[in-house]
Design a protein that fits this description.
Length: 237
């Protein structure tokens, strides 16, 4: 697989939708996460990320303009012990609650499907990072309709044990703009990652389409200690 730069990949389309990047810094000391949201409608663009416990949630920037909260207000990031969960919807809570009852990441997601937003049937994308005693692994998932047919749900999980330093995996909801929006295809894209969290955040944010980008969450977790740093960028201020 060809390794791409963040700028090259994110600027290649005006509307990748919502996206998750997970990987490891080049020096091998940090786990890296990025989650971004974009929007085409006023309702989708009327959002910000705010912290909630060790994770984040979305909320309306202007509550008076909030129309339908069902698919846009949720907790994208939650922490369960030594596991960090990141998703593009309320399946974050499903994963958290069922893994807390000893289900696996895959078992938890088998209770969910793609979003009920015909005709797009937006894929549900999810990631989980597990850091324990200096060991680090992660997995990513996508639940999508079968080529736009809502009668069938295709489920893909990609697991990465002892991930390589300096690279991340990128999965997102759409292949680009369109009507209906075309769902992501293939396995997560291989991206180059930097050691510096601010550089990572700035590169992701500046590479997203200016009109459509809404919010970005970035976190670097020290693999040896589990301590983390977080950065949030909101277009609405």
């Amino acid at each position: 697989m060809v390794k791409k730069t963040i700028k090259e990949e994110l600027s290649s389309t005006t509307y990748p939708g919502r996206g998750i990047i997970i990987g490891k810094t080049p020096d091998g000391t940090k786990a890296a996460i990025a989650y971004f949201i974009m929007g085409r409608s006023e309702n989708s663009r009327n959002r910000v990320f705010v912290t909630e416990g060790e994770g984040i949630r979305t909320e309306a920037f202007d509550p008076s303009k909030l129309e339908d909260p069902s698919l846009i207000i949720y907790a994208p990031v939650r922490v369960l012990g030594n596991k960090t969960i990141v998703t593009n919807g309320d399946q974050t809570d499903t994963i958290y609650e069922l893994m807390d009852k000893q289900n696996t990441f895959e078992q938890s997601l088998r209770t969910r499907e793609f979003e009920p937003d015909a005709p797009n049937y937006t894929p549900r994308i999810s990631g989980i990072l597990h850091i324990e005693d200096g060991d680090y692994n992660f997995a990513m998932s996508i639940l999508k309709s079968d080529d736009g047919n809502p009668e069938s749900c295709n489920r893909f999980t990609f697991a990465y044990s002892n991930p390589q330093p300096g690279v991340g995996r990128f999965i997102h909801t759409y292949m680009g703009d369109g009507n209906p929006l075309p769902s992501f295809e293939g396995e997560p894209v291989l991206l180059e990652l930097p050691n510096d969290m601010d550089e990572f955040a700035d590169t992701v944010w500046n590479s997203l389409n200016e009109e459509n980008k809404v919010s970005l969450f970035v976190r670097y977790i020290d693999i040896a200690t589990g301590k983390y740093e977080t950065k949030i960028i909101n277009k609405n201020k």
